[in-house]
Amino acid sequence: MNKTLSIVLIVLAVALIAYNVTLLNFENLLEGNSVIAMIGIVASLCAIVLLLIFITSKRIQKKLDNNR
Fold it and tell me: What whole-number distance in Å separates Cα of residue 45 and Cα of residue 54?
């Protein structure tokens, strides 16, 4: 997976977070569609963290390969 694809996936995850925030009912966060929206937000945040870890590991691997 190249860097461009990773960035596109991060942007899509941010877009999903924005969409799910619009579905939240701030008066009752733990009822109905708000729970599903919160799960979607947390899942998108996890995806972003995993993609950032992946990008960082690729950078480290590239530096190690250049030093050999």
Answer: 14
For the full predicted model, state whether its pTM sits above 0.70: yes
Contacts of range 5-13, beta carbons closer than 8 Å, 24 or more positions apart? 6/51, 6/54, 6/55, 9/47, 9/51, 10/48, 10/51, 10/52, 13/44, 13/45, 13/47, 13/48, 13/51
Q: Find where tokens 């969409």 sit.
A: 19
Amino acid at 49: V
Residue with tokens 């996936």: 9
Cα 34 from Cα 63, distance rounded (Å):
44
Report pLDDT for 3: 85
**Mean pLDDT score of the chain, rounded to an integer?**
93
